Amino acid sequence: MRLPFCAVGAAALWAIVAASAVRADMVGHGGPIRALAVSPGGNGLLSGSFDTAAIRWSLETDTAEQVLRYHADAVNAVVFLKDGRMVTAGVDARIAVWTAGRQQPERLLEGHLAPIVALAVSPDGAFLASASWDRTVRLWSLSDGASRVLEGHTQNVNGVAFPPDGKSLVSVGYDLTLRIWRLPDGQPEIVTLPAPLNAVSVAPDGEIVVGAVDGMLRMLTADGKVSGEVAAGPTPVVAVTISADGALIAAAGIGGTVAIIDRKSRSLLRTLIGPGLPVWSVAFLSDRETLITGGADGKIRRWNARTGDPISSVLSGKSADPLAVYAGDHGAEVFRACVACHTLSDKEVQRAGPTLAGLYGRKIASLPGYRFSEALKTMDIVWTPETVAKLFEVGPNSYTPGTKMPEQRIGSAEDRRALTDFLGRATSR
């Protein structure tokens, strides 16, 4: 028997299997967590995912407060502005500025020609910097949206950061170079390092820390002189963050571990080990020791960076098992692999896929507020027990060509019938 997978496929199923391994997790995304940002007051978190959504979380109530949906593809970068507004950017090369509680962006910033992978806000809150695989950095005025293009990188630009004085901007790229753009004239100082660079962060005292594909962290002075290096792990470093007091560095690796570095002594203090899947994003909370990590399994975890222990609290859009009331229902068990992406009620926080509340009788791609694939909008399918069964009998690629849903089938007619019967009971309004 093949159970239906949601949009994240095997990663979502692994999230279910590994739930007991590391319990400090926020659950709500239906794909890898590509980006994290902590709010200025320290009580909120913003996450961006490969599932095309961003989620605003409360760190006080341990709940997801808002799902931000605009982007047509993965959300690679997120930041908070000083006034509490949020910024998201991604593979669709668009930047969206959001106000909490509003369902649509208040402003769009467009100009990049390839995926945007990193964002940074100037210390005075006046400018936004973006790094893109179109080999450019853009500096955006947050007052009027005007942008300035900083050119020079010869390959993908993977990271961008402002020093604390705001007088320059640092970018790193796959071309092995770190560039310090002196503002306002924008003339760069170029430093070539031994390996392609994936991430950059700047400490409160101005020291620059970069992560590279050779698993090394390299430290540079504010004027670009190499001042130290530490081996973070055997696999590429893909994200770097520094605690508010500048004491600790966290470096996330594609191999699934996070290295905690003492910045002053240039020593590896400990390595955080999760379920073995890539860790794409890291952020310190304002207490200077709690680390938030975002993984390929779609979960956000909390750690005590000083002890290396996972923090034991389960944080989610809905903390209880949504299928607990259906214990013993075969149809619910067939559906279980889908709960990471689809809710049964429109009262729950929306996940990667549309809610299934009121599914039967609804035309395909007609649910308000969800960004469906353009191909689905032209189809004349109404969801019924028969059409849902057909979807999983022949597979999404055949029944709904152009969908973003991965190919999946349920070979057993009995299982398909159990699933459609269950959906009829669980999704009726």
Task: Give your account of this protein's structure.
- This protein is mainly beta.
- The protein folds into two domains: 21-316, Methylamine Dehydrogenase, Chain H (7 Propeller); 324-426, Cytochrome c-like domain (Cytochrome Bc1 Complex, Chain D, domain 2), CATH 1.10.760.
- Helices cover 11% and strands 38% of the residues.
- It is built from six helices and 30 strands.
- The chain has helices at 10-17, 330-335, 374-377, 385-394, 396-399, 413-426; strands at 25-27, 33-38, 44-49, 53-58, 63-69, 75-80, 86-90, 94-98, 107-110, 116-121, 127-132, 136-141, 147-151, 157-161, 168-173, 177-182, 187-192, 197-202, 208-212, 216-220, 226-231, 237-242, 248-253, 257-262, 267-273, 279-284, 290-295, 299-304, 309-310, 315-316.
- The strands form seven sheets. Strands 1, 26, 27, 28, 29 and 30 form a six-stranded mixed β-sheet that branches. The protein has a four-stranded antiparallel β-sheet with strand order 2-3-4-5, with no helix packed on it. The protein has a four-stranded antiparallel β-sheet with strand order 6-7-8-9, with no helix packed on it.
- Helix 4 (385-394) crosses helix 6 (413-426).
- The longest helix is centred in the last third of the chain and has 14 residues, at 413-426.
- The model is unreliable at 1-24 and 313-319 (pLDDT under 50).
